[in-house]
């Protein structure tokens, strides 16, 4: 038994060393890329100043990590949210924070959310480092589960907008078994980088015809948040939630990381191993850039 333990410990230490070394190297490279890219971006803004509206410049300059953590991040219990009032709910993690710095509409969507959930260990870490405040990570799957319980108890109607017909069919079947008091409907929009006016009208009409209390939008970030921000005035549901991959998690077409990894703050690791091509950028580019932003915020260098 002792021999097996030593072998396991050695291989584990080796793996940890490789991961840490690779991570440090990635941080150094990405900081250099960030500095170069930032300087090029500033030149572009100065060059085209007249072509950029004042809102965009204000928000790009105002995307301060301290401000987001202090004034926008939800840090209470989900039970404290009044779901009987109009409520737009979004999530933020280190990757979406970095993406929003170069996407004014996405940035606007996040900042205009009534509830902005800390869906990432990096956001939890930032709160602790910047304000010594301990907050709980709340993933899209958590708000989804909470709202389903709320809807079942109160006989609410829910609508799923996004994903494939197959995924939506699996969701509907599972809901009828687990939450029999919920009325559910769904619509699978066309797979396009951008929706046409006709596409958007059809999506809005399908939602409003069913007249749900809760609308779950799953079209991946930042597409889903931007769509909600642009069309929220036309949507009738009381609660609108952008939850992306949760559609697949709940349907079972994609398996969420186990509680073991979630509790360690490493939910991203099994997903990265399974989908490296899709997720490498958010872990090896966005994470170091977020840590760089966090360091600047801590040192008051923003």
From TrEMBL:
Transmembrane intervals: 15-37
Signal peptide: none
Keywords, comma-separated and alphabetical: Glycosyltransferase, Membrane, Transferase, Transmembrane, Transmembrane helix
Pfam families: Glyco_tran_WecG (PF03808)
PANTHER family the record matches: PTHR34136, UDP-N-ACETYL-D-MANNOSAMINURONIC ACID TRANSFERASE
Name of the featured protein: WecB/TagA/CpsF family glycosyltransferase
Species of the source: Flavivirga algicola
């Amino acid at each position: 038994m002792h021999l097996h333990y030593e072998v396991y410990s050695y291989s584990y230490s080796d793996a940890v060393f490789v991961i840490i070394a690779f991570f440090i190297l990635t941080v150094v490279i990405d900081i250099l890329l960030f500095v170069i890219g930032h300087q090029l971006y500033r030149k572009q803004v100065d060059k085209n100043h007249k072509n950029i509206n004042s809102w965009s410049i204000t928000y790009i300059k105002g995307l301060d990590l301290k401000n987001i953590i202090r004034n926008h991040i939800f840090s209470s219990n989900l039970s404290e949210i009044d779901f009987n009032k109009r409520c737009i709910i979004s999530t933020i993690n280190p990757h979406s924070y970095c993406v929003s710095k170069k996407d004014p509409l996405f940035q606007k969507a996040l900042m205009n959310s009534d509830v902005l959930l800390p869906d990432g260990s990096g956001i939890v870490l930032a709160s602790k480092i910047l304000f010594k405040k301990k907050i709980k990570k709340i993933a899209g799957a958590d708000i989804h589960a909470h709202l389903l319980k709320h809807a079942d108890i109160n006989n609410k109607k829910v609508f799923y907008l996004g994903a494939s017909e197959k995924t939506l069919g699996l969701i509907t079947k599972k809901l009828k078994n687990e939450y029999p008091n919920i009325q559910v409907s769904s619509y699978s929009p066309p797979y396009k980088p951008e929706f046409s006016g006709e596409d958007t009208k059809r999506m809005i009409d399908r939602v409003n015809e069913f007249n749900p209390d809760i609308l779950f939008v799953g079209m991946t970030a930042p597409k889903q948040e931007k769509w909600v921000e642009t069309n929220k005035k036309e949507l009738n549901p009381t609660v609108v939630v952008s939850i992306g991959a949760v559609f697949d998690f709940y349907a079972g077409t994609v398996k969420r990381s186990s509680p073991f990894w979630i509790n360690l703050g490493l939910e991203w690791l099994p997903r990265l191993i399974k989908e490296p091509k899709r997720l490498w950028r958010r872990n090896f580019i966005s994470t170091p850039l977020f840590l760089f932003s966090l360091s600047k915020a801590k040192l008051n260098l923003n």
